[in-house]
Amino acid sequence: METKILPIDGRSLAQAKDIISSGGAVAFPTETVYGLGANALDDGAVRNIFAIKGRPSDNPLIVHVHSGYDITRLVARVPDYAKLLAKAFLPGPLTMVYESLNKVSPAVSCGLDTLAIRVPSHAGAQEFLRYVDLPIAAPSANISKHVSPVTAQHVYDDLKGRIELVLDGGKCTGGIESTVLDCTGDIPCVLRSGLVTADMIAQVAGECHEYVMKDGEKVRSPGMKYKHYSPNCRTILFEYAERQRAFTEYSRLIEEGKRVYFMCENAVFEEFRPKFALNLGNDEREIASNLYDKLREGEMVADIIVAVAPRKRDGVMVGVMNRMRKAFG
Known about the structure:
The structure is a single chain. The two termini are 33 Å apart. By secondary structure, the protein is an alpha/beta fold. The chain has an eleven-stranded mixed sheet, sandwiched between helices. A four-stranded parallel sheet has the order 12-15-13-14, sandwiched between helices. The radius of gyration is 20 Å and the shape is globular. It is built from eleven helices and 15 strands.
């Protein structure tokens, strides 16, 4: 199978709709990462996503819809606080989980009675979703457990020969996946942290909990259970307070003749000035935006990535640290 990367225009959208209508999968951009989308109403198409990625069959998917789509066609109840959150943050990097009407393939939610729905803000994603006018089930467009893709080339590198089309919408600016919020209870609960933080949600909804998964519990959201976001090289993660130890280890490995890169925020880069560096940037938004891109860059040039966790830990950095810990195992 030949894989094409095409700009988003009338011709590529028509091709994408043909692929989706015939049960195939199309990669498309969002503001966070690229998604691998298929018709959520088609059981065979949804199961094909799992096969393309090599994704575990108990790891649920998110359904993407355009901003004009009536989600009550898919979900049983939208709490009042969820309506307020939708008004405040959608379209945007917030996925909300509702009680399902079981209209989509059961493979989407992996046997759960809930459905995760997202309205991405990326203009190209909205064009694609409006053109096909279907609920699109979509995990990240990469081989399972590899670093999530933030460019069309990243998708191509992982899925060449497995899909027909990558819609190229440029580099994703958000950088980490959407926040996943359980809206089935009286109080919203964050299942996966992202760019919309628990504090931001609480300011609108009045209150917000953060979920901690228990051993043996069934996965309720993507990214909760398995090792994810991992580059194809050895990785070592140090806490911010251990940054001198991290640089010493980096230097030792360099002396041994290893190809080693030092991943850190800009303040730590300025402190140590490593020759081979993956600089994540200055503030939390910049670090989030650069994380996957730098992990992808690192695996191309390094045998080992030695990383220092960012100093800041609240806000968006909760999501960043979640991804770093999973990426570095």
